Amino acid sequence: MTYQAFYRVYRPQSFRDMSGQTHVKKTLQNALQSDHTTHAYLFSGPRGTGKTSTAKIFAKALNCERAPIAEPCNECATCKSITENGHPDVIEFDAASNSRVEEIREIIEKVRFAPASARFKVYIIDEVHMLSTSAFNALLKTLEEPPAHAKFILATTEPHKIPATIISRCQRFDFKRLSSIDIVERMKVVLEDIERPYDEKALKVISQASAGGMRDALSMLDQVVSFSENEVKLEDALFVTGSISQDIFYRLVEHIQQKNVASVLGLLEELMNEGKDAVRLSEDLITFFRDLLLIQTAPDLGDLLELASNEEKFVQLANDFSLDTLYQYIDILSKTQQEMRFSLHSKVYLETALLKMVQTSQPAQVMNNHSEQSSTVHSQGLEAKVAQLESLVQQMQSMGGPVAVTESQTTSQRPRQKPQAGFKVPTGRVNEVLKIATKPAIQQIKSIWMDAVNQLTKSQQALLADSEPVAATDGVFVLKFKHEILCRMAAENKELAEQFKQVLVGLTNTFYEIVFVPEDDWNRIRTEFIRKHKEGTQPVSENVNVAGNEPEEPVQSFLDIEQHEEEVDDTVVSEAQKLFGKDFIEIEE
Predict the structure, then answer these.
(1) In the chain, how many domains are there?
(2) What is the mean pLDDT of residues 345-356?
(3) pTM of the model
(4) For the domain that residue 200 is a member of, what is the CATH number?
(5) Second label for 244, Cα 20 to 30 Å away, from 98, 166, 203, 331?
(6) H-helix segments, 199-277
(7) Where in this chain does the record put each AAA+ ATPase domain (predicted)?
């Protein structure tokens, strides 16, 4: 028998074998047990998170000879046939290579026929977002009124490309990226099954490189096993995945702490000569600084560390930096990573980021010394003022009357209060987004908006309660706030910004920059932008994406959307006036 890859051999065959996705498993098992399954399901999520495997397990449980049952038995003839991809009533369809309407019509024509031997006909359509508009329209009627014996399972990595009419007819399940712990545990099962010794640190490296995808992790593990001789070692995993050892990160951050520019750039040059990717290195640096934050703020959560460890040297390194400095490093690297996406000189951007970090580095001990010095100076100033007041009192007592104090003295002694600055609106940045904003981009943000907000903490959700995304490009979107104070608080909350960006990356596979703007300022900027465009003074890039390349299909720009909404409003008003008369119509903005 020919060799099969790990991700094929160790594909889960029952719900209990699946890693993660507890919310999906529990809901489907309850529906199977009670025999209350619906006719259509939509499985969406990143690649390698178990969508197709779950669909096959669900199909087996539906048609198992012992049904209704929460787990397929994998022993009856039907279960074995489905496992071997040989059952005529479970049809897998790849929409990526069969996107035309003719292929869908051929399936639809056979839906009405009863199953050959199973209880249900199950259609698994993978990468369903690749279907053409005509194919979706042909599928729509069948999804709306399917035969009682037909079940549809649609799987996709890009749910925002599926028409809302299709989504509304399906039960939707969002698959999340798998945790590092789940991936490591699954790899341990595989290695123990093939009786191969391993170093757990090597498995953590593979897990971190897989970015939450089990299939990617097992593929890399397969490659590492082939590369290694007798044992899966850390060095083998680092070499195969292109990752960097924690000791290299320790040396690099230590040079940054010591402000040794030559050593920082020299070490970076060595890594580049070894073939490391600058974008990947920036991602790993963000993860390493995240680990240092975790060591400093929650030392008990050592299991969540990815690149660092609880060794004494890493604990000491973490405590040498203040929390503000670590947050600042992560912010610098995040912005740099965003700029790298549109440049061919990613190494230069990373060098610049490291130089910024060297210049802004301020260890915690230095900051403590600085605060102690400031406190000493402040206390000395208070003592001097007390001594001056005591001398004035003695002078008053000796003279027997009041003592005149000049205005210059009182003015110099009274500390001046700094005026509180309001929120600085990024007008220029908003205008830049509006020039290249498209309808698909803002639709993608709005489609996952509630899912993204629900993954934040309660306090962070409260800040975003009255916010709304109003314009977007492929990597930036404008977030409007009803109240200026909430906008300012959200913009100044670095922890919220970083966590929210990571949540959006998990849901869209895109790293977004967020532009905060109050509602009043948004209305002003939007109105001015539209006015300048109509006057011909504001250039707008139509049908051009962020990278400047022409897309395959024309996209609807921000101004097109606004003009379309105005035309719709005018049509509604005119129709109402025709029906009821102008005297009975009152128009409110």
Answers:
(1) 4
(2) 86
(3) 0.54
(4) 1.10.8.60
(5) 331
(6) 200-210, 214-227, 234-241, 246-257, 261-273
(7) 37-179
